[in-house]
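User: I'm putting together notes for a lab meeting next week and I want to include a structural view of one of the chains we've been expressing. I don't have a solved structure, so I'd like a prediction I can at least talk through. The sequence is below, exactly as it appears in our construct file.
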Amino acid sequence: MAPPPRDPPAPATKYFWGDAPEPDEYYASLGLRHTEAYYQSPHGRLFTHSFHPLTAADDGDVKAIVFMTHGYGSDSSWMFQTMAIAYAQWGYAVFCADLLGHGRSDGIHGYFGDMDTVADASLSFFLSVRKSQPYSHLPAFLLGESMGGAATLLAYLRSPRESQSPQWNGIILSAPLLVFPDGLNPSRIRLFLYGLLFGIADTWAVMPDRKMVGKSIRDPEKLRVIAANPRRYAGPPRVGTMRELARVTAAIRERLGEVTAPFLAVHGTDDGVASPEGSRLLYERAASEDKSLILYDGMYHSLVQGESDENRDRVLADMRAWIDERVRRYGGRAEA
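Assistant: Thanks for the context. Below is the predicted structure for the 336-residue chain, given as structure tokens.
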């Protein structure tokens, strides 16, 4: 029997853009100011990033704020930054946080036994920024990619409801994981058998490895760069992680009718990691009056990080048109 396919050899570089320039110089060359910090949430410490356009006179001199959440096994310090950089270059203040169990945030690498806790930790950080000066008067958007899309919807559903104005002016979802494709569903038999061990096996990395990175990235060169991420979780899925993904995706599907915020969902029709059926269900069931769904024929899972430059630019152009229009439509810097 032939051995299973392996990730392609990865270039060993300090940063996703190479060994040089150093971060401050790199971001400045893109017209951005970038900061890193740790945030102590009620559930653990989160590693965070912020991106601001250098053209902004101060932190609040931006169109709106966007809070971004990465996908499974990833973090906000590697190729996921390409999305944050794009939004900041469009005039938005962008904040990202590594999910618990990912990147440089607290937790066992690649593990989350409770997605509600994971979502609440990120939500705590997002709200701390959203309510602070100079951001409290600005429109605010949530953005999630892949599993981060599920975490984003969960954070939205768990957000406190304000009587005066909404916490979130819109949601952007890139290939959200709401429905597993055929053959990728976690094995119920395995989860049941490991569950008989009364939690002992919850952190075990023993679930089948479906080589999801290869199913996500269509551009071979970008696949090599993404595989080089030193903080990417590349081990077999952990028992508790897959149990929670199965539980929470089903739970979110039952609550899609509670989504009332404007949203844009984008999805590739050849996505082998998160079925586009999930985005279709969101579009059909959400109560939002302003909702948009764009399906890209033949594209894979990672629409911004893993497609050709031409396809990436097409997706980003659609995202930019949507968010710029919502900022204009819903009042720009209207008082909160």
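A couple of points you could mention at the meeting. The longest strand covers residues 32-41. The two ends are 62 Å apart (CA to CA).

User: Perfect, that's what I needed.
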